[in-house]
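Per reviewer request, we include the raw input and output of the structure prediction for the construct analysed in the revised manuscript.
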Amino acid sequence: MKKTVYIIFSLIFILFLVSLSSCSLPNKDSSIDEVKIAKSIDENTSKPMEVQNVFTQSDPIIYFSFRINNLPKNTKLTAHWKYLKDGTEIPSELIVSGSGYKSFNLKRSGSRFPAGQYEVKVTTEVNGKTIEIKDNFEVTSEISATHLLNPVICKSVSNNSELKPIDISSEFSQSDPVIYFVIQSKDLPKDSKVSCLWLYKDTGDSIPGEIITDGSRNIAFNLKPNTGKLLPAGSYIVTASVTIGSETESISKGFEIKKASE
């Protein structure tokens, strides 16, 4: 009799544990965040590397990167790349689950992307709830550079009037106090705005700058750390651009900053 009661009690206890596990706390909410448009991504993680919202027609590929959080198994993400000028859409799908960075990409079908404004939107449905993310970007008209020429990266310049580059290099150290980007302008119209963007490729962080100028002369932009700080080691690219009428031309140069001990 006692043995029977013990067995019945054990069965009830096991059923209680099963019931308790089935009534455990629900999974964390499913979501998608950290939405970025990028020129490149980490091949292993899909984390964005060169974050930007303005591209040129000759860029080979544009990425839409984001982070998924607690998505159920076999969740289908649907992306729509839309060219806003004429409404053309390009769809694609991705099956995902769990958490981590994911991405869609848009590759040019010919030699150039059509210039203009674009929108990319990703949607999915999880447990009856619609999740949607989107972002916009621009592809600028691209022409051969005729007003911005001969870009170089260097450690110093001759003086404030001539700005001749000195000690030209593509590799620098964190101990270098300043890095210069020197370009030659040619026949720029009066009050032309030459923009500059220093991009840290490892994180997508960027520092903009601009100069109002005209005519033909050397133009120099510089990158320096805050007082008491060092520039992060890694890969950089700096781009200068100018828009004349409805056309934009740009020139870029890449460089590396090594750790101060290297």
